[in-house]
Every structure is written in structure tokens, then in C-alpha cells.
Known about the structure:
The structure is a homodimer of 275-residue chains. By secondary structure, the first copy, chain A, is an alpha/beta fold. Helices cover 57% and strands 9% of the residues of chain A. Chain A is elongated, with a radius of gyration of 25 Å.
Amino acid sequence: MISSIAELIADRLGTMPAGERRAAQTLIASYPMIGLKTVAEFSAAAGVSSPTILRFVARLGFQNYPEFQSSLQDELAAQLQSPAIRTLNPPSPGGGTVSPMLEATLDNMRETFRHLSDKQLADIAARLADRRGKTFLIGGRFTDPLARYMAAHLAVIQPDVFHLAGQESMWRDRLIDMGKRDVLVIFDIRRYQDSLVRFAEKAHQRGVQIVLFTDQWLSPIARFARHVIAGRTAVPSAWDSSAALFVVAETLIGAVTRQLEADGARRIREMEELR
Amino acid sequence: MISSIAELIADRLGTMPAGERRAAQTLIASYPMIGLKTVAEFSAAAGVSSPTILRFVARLGFQNYPEFQSSLQDELAAQLQSPAIRTLNPPSPGGGTVSPMLEATLDNMRETFRHLSDKQLADIAARLADRRGKTFLIGGRFTDPLARYMAAHLAVIQPDVFHLAGQESMWRDRLIDMGKRDVLVIFDIRRYQDSLVRFAEKAHQRGVQIVLFTDQWLSPIARFARHVIAGRTAVPSAWDSSAALFVVAETLIGAVTRQLEADGARRIREMEELR
DNA sequence: GGAGCGCTGTATCGTATGTTACGTATTTTG
DNA sequence: CAAAATACGTAACATACGATACAGCGCTCC
Lengths: 275, 275
């Protein structure tokens, strides 16, 4: 069973002529980076001519050089997505059905935050904390609860926070209340919902700033979004996981709260008194 | 100090026009693989034209596209050589607001699952998968979205799943439908809601089996509950975190789905056809 | 409401890149 | 040792890729 190109090379190294073997060895030496560069650079590094490189990749079974490079890239991408943690920490022994799921979820969160800079979060928090405009939240079939969760918290610390619920026609009518200073927070992961995309487009046309929570493949709404948060969703289950997005949402709630601390504290106190 | 291209992008994201920002966001979402492909592929993935991609890399300070790709490759190479240190987002100086929050959340989850045996989860899953009775879900002020999230998934794979929403009087009337074979899933964390406690007590008197999601200090509902899941909620924020409970909920959803696999698969297929 | 600016996409261009044909060198075999 | 076959590099070629000029559009600011 040969899965990686490195194995493929090791397998056929014996049957290769001298020149191609040099190519193979230089590739293995700094695997796989040299293979991502141009044929000219590869050949120079290996000390052979370009045609030798091409014959080399042909012998590995590739039709042409770009195809070979794509394979290397795919391999790299797969390698980057399953963090070293999983290979370093062997699946915890006794492995019930639980721990793989938990481990994957924890990985997802780390990975999600790795692609999310503090600055980006701070920007979004600042936008959400800006009280000149209204804040609307909405989500898809399975993610709407996340929108509700976020709305429930934001509504406590600032006015003009609205969760858009119910039928599509209901929230479509709310578009009339939305303008440039307003923010629309949308949750949309696979399979992306047409109704949400349409809604986002119309909101965008009205100048509403869109904050999108989506998965790593990006909902089409990313086209209209001012800010995009891409969370990892893959877990060993029949369903995708929204846990990473949930944690991002909580982080944002915390950040907004901190920004509004002065105002927010007074507001919360007033609320307590109203009870 | 800006060392990686990802940081560079995060830094200038705010000053970019819409099209280039879309390029930036798609790059970050699947960093850095898209940047290694051709301009045409990059532009297609981002939904913009090729010149926009080129203007984007120019704004980052690169003379041309190949130079940009070389930088990405160098970064990748450095990253691959020291697999332990994966520095996409280095610990932000000046105390990032993010990482303490994330770390605390991850700890909460590990700790929550440490106190939760596989058997316990399997028992609850089996109870939820038992189709002889109905399943009701409800939550408190901030946790009701979790109930909704769970209900949305369970309702797909089995009939008779009901989320109790709206006014207290509304769900109190639903008590009449509940009996011994039924399950009531309640989410209740500090500050525990009287209305939920009252409701749980009445349901308990009718013989309903209660599954309680609560925090480590246990809601008073634990008195009536057949199963109690205690999640850690403490994070460095003004709010408690429900993330650990969320992950438990997802785990349960996955377990129930697996148990109902045969029936569930047919059900999901039928649903698809109804669209 | 009008003028100016900036952003974006279409179409075109030059070139670097991968590819192929061919001749020379090197090894292998009878 | 000779002859054939295989391997390798040089040089010419075609293509696909990145780069650029330009026009249309929307937005902001008078």
C-alpha cells in the first residue's frame, strides 16, 4: 500500500538510472519543498538537466509536472490539517467512542484559533460594540441556536440587538430597518442555505456590515462579508461540529463585554433592579 | 514585529478594499495552500478577478506573484522543520485576550469529560435513542440555545422530539403529554431559574426521566434528575462558558445517531426526498 | 445633484515555464 | 573489443501563466 509520493519514490529508487536517482534523492532530502518549485530550480538543485526531472516525474506515473506538483500540495494540505498533536499523542487507550470525538473537537478549536488573529477578533468586537448601529443575528438550520446564544448575551449589555427568527418572509421584512451603521451576524455552514445567501446579498446591498461565521470551505456569503470567521467542523461523526464556532462566539461575547465595560456594568445593574 | 505573512495580512486587513479583503480571507481560511496555486485558481476560489489577486499581493509588499509564493514556501519549509512549534499566530504580546480564554475552555472540556464515563454517556444515549417515548428539551435564559441545537439534530433522526419554547405557561401545559416513557432534557446553569426547577419537579412527579445539563455546582434540579452532566463553566470572562456542555451535547447527538443508524439513515433519506 | 476619485473586471500582451526532438556520451552485451 | 541500446543534455518550441492598460461603475465629498 503506497500512499505518499515519498513512499512511491523509495519503492522505485532501485530501478532508476543515475540521473533520476539524483533527482529523487534531492527531493527526499528536502521533501517536499523542492518539488513545489520550478523544473529549472529543481534541476539545478539536483545538478541534472530539466528533461531528467521531467523523465523522473513521468516514471513516477504522472502525466506532467503540474500534476506532480498538485499531488505534493494535496499531501501537504492533508498533513497540515491533521495536526502533529494527533501523531504525537496516540489515541488515548481504552478509547471509548468518546475520546476520538473530543480530541477532534479540541483540535478543531486550536486550529480555528490558529487561523484567527487577535487583531481580527478585536476589530469585530469593536464593530459589535459600536453602539451607533443596531445588531442583527441569524443562523441556518443547525446554527441558528448559536445566533440565539450570542444574541442572548449581547442583548444584556447593549440595546438594539435583534435575533431574526421565524419564517424567511419575517426577517426579509426586517431588511427595511437595516442600514450602513448596522451589523448583521450570520452563521452558515455546509450545506449552505440559499435563503441565507439571498438575505445576506440584500443586506449587503443596503450597506449592512456582515460578520460571517462559517466553515473552512467558506459559505458563498463570504462574498458579501466584511469579516469572515472560518471554523473547523470535521469530527468523526455523522454530523459536522459547530463547537469551534461556539467558542469563537463566546470569545467575542467576552471581548465585546470588556469593551462596553463602563456602559455595560451600569446596564446590567439597571437590569438587576428591574427584576 | 511581523514575521509571517498571515500576520501581515491580519495587520493590513482593515485597510484593504472589499475585493482584496475577500482574497485575504480565502487565503487565511485555507492557509497557505491556496497561495501556492496559480493566480487563476486563487482568484476563482476567492470569487474575484486575477488582477485583484495581484493587487492584493502587491499591497502586502511583494514585487510579483512568484516572490509572494516563494515567501509562503519558505514559511512552510521552516514550519515543517520544527513540527512542534506551529507558529501561525504566535502568542500575542501584551497579553492576548484570546489565548487565556481558549486555554481555559479547552481545560474545561478535558475536565468535564474526565468526570464523565463512557458508560454514563452510553446510558443516556441509549435512553434518548429509545423510541418508545417522546423527548422534550428545554433550557434556561442563556442555555436554551443549547436545547434548541440538540433538538434540531435529534429531530432529524427520530420522531417525537420537541423543544419547549415560549412562555412558561406554554410549556407547563405540555406536562399533560408527558409520562413515564418520556425523557426531558434540561439545561440549567447558574443562576438557576426557579421556573425550570418548578417545571422539573412537576415532570418528575409524572414519572418523566430527566437528563440534566448543569454546571459543576449542580442545579437544584439534580434532585429530580435520572442523569446529571456537570460541565465546567469557569473562564476568564464576565460570563460563564457553556462550551463544555455544548461539546457534551454534540457527543451525545453523535452517539444517539450511531445507535439509530439503521433507522436514522432511512429517515434522513426520506427527508432529503421531501425537499 | 454633480464632479472627482478609487476600486474592479475585461481584454491584451510578453514571457517564463514545461515540453519535445535530436544528437552525443556512456554503458551493456555478444 | 565492437556494436547496440540506453541515458543524458542542448536547443528549439508551444503554451499557459502572470502582468498591464484601459474602461466602466459605484462611492464619497463638495
